[in-house]
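Convert to structure. Protein one:
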Amino acid sequence: MRVSLTDAGKRYNRDWIFRHLNFNFDKGISYAITGPNGSGKSTLLQAISGAIGLNEGKMSYETGGDQTGNGILTENAFQYISICAPYLEVVEEMTFREFMSFHQSFKPFIKGTGIDQMMAAVQLENAADKQIRFYSSGMKQRVKLAQALFSDTPILLLDEPCTNLDTAGISLYHQLINDYCKERLVIVSSNDPEEYGFCHQQLKIQDWK
């Protein structure tokens, strides 16, 4: 899987968030999008996800690891992408099991992975029958991580993935990355090395202003 940005630019009104960005993201490699708060990291990640459009340039998705790969229509890219971000909500009236079953009707989970296994992986077994609205902020973040990491997609986008996690939660995050993301294309948007320290490459958003 490859995501390619060619002379890509995004602006709001007259302010360019990034411009003339040329970069390839390839499967099996993890990338960090870094920069100060408000620099446009999340905007770039949302553009990669297909949630927002570019103002100039183009973005392509290919199922192959090189230029001979088969192209994917932008409107179908969501089938290949899962995302975890602070601004994305979960259905808080549901329990963990209900929410994951609901999500699975839209996007399948990693083959051979059941909901009970996911619950154990993010250490939420003791809250199995509790509505998510009664979870702490850190527990809700674990739900978001589970939803993204266990979706059977080749591309995983993580925007400030350790938001609201304590030390144990951060350790769990790294364990999940190690266990489930070795063969995937992972892109982390963050200014905290603790969240992206495992990444192979960095894209500094400030270099594309």
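Protein two, convert as well:
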Amino acid sequence: MKILRLLPLAAILAFGCGESGPTTSIRIDGSSTVYPISAAAAEDFGLVNPGVSVAVSYSGTGGGFKKFENGETDINNASRPIKQIEIDRAAEHGIEFIELPVAFDGLSVIVNPKNDFIDYLTTEELKAIWEPGSTVGSWSQVRSGWPDEGIELYGAGTDSGTFDYFTEAIMGESGACRPDYTASEDDNLTITGVAGDTNALGFLGFAYYVTSKDLVKVVPIEGEGRDEPVAPSSETIMTGTYFPLSRPLFIYVDADAAERPEVDSFVRFYIENAPVLVPESGYIQLPASAYDLVLKRFENRVTGSVFGGGGATVGVSIEDILAREAAE
């Protein structure tokens, strides 16, 4: 049943009580990567709070922040830290926010299972394929000896935090990417595209790969300063050895909304149950001590960002999470 959360059809969860329906509501939007965790939290919260409607949608991290900045939502799911321009727009609308890291993810590079020649890719090869102005159109242009077959590219849409993080980590600049690929805010469409094309290459969140191992194959990545390629796994993401494609995941809570009893209860429930909800959703949970600090941050209503304001914060480790939360 948990796997179904990764395959949303309507992308909306609502919980009510009786024919008269719920009495209060919470609105969540943003990252499709964080969607499964928030959807799981909403589902379980609804079981014990039938009088509260929790609507969880996804329009990408950037698309969600646009709604959040305008006060249209109470919580924004984000697969990257908030950008300075988003902080500024929120301030213009009088929106203060509480930044809460909730999990770790490893962006996964995937190919079709019938691809029998790729054993790994380097970050330099990924850059050559995906950078703006790239003329790489076939596998033979990536590495000598590979077949002269055209590459079909799939990945996150430009409103996605996954897109921002991938481009920051691989190209060194958020948003720097060739435009001629099949882009979608829905990671399931990337899975479908790669699964249906022998010469396809794509990138998405770790949880979507985990639930689709029978459809796609993950590619180990050789990064700068490493002797051997590393594939994403719970261990390599948690230890930081899957670099530079490991990243923290967040929820951003509207500070005014947090004062509403139903939102306060939901966020507390989310953080307290994250050690179970996160791995069930296919991601890597933070240490218990980190969740204690995150909950304290929420209880103290600490607003602003310690992760955002710049790029995608490439290379943040779980230790960084602890240190930054403790500093606050």
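The first strand starts at residue 24 and ends at 30. The chain has two domains: 3-104+249-327, 106-239.
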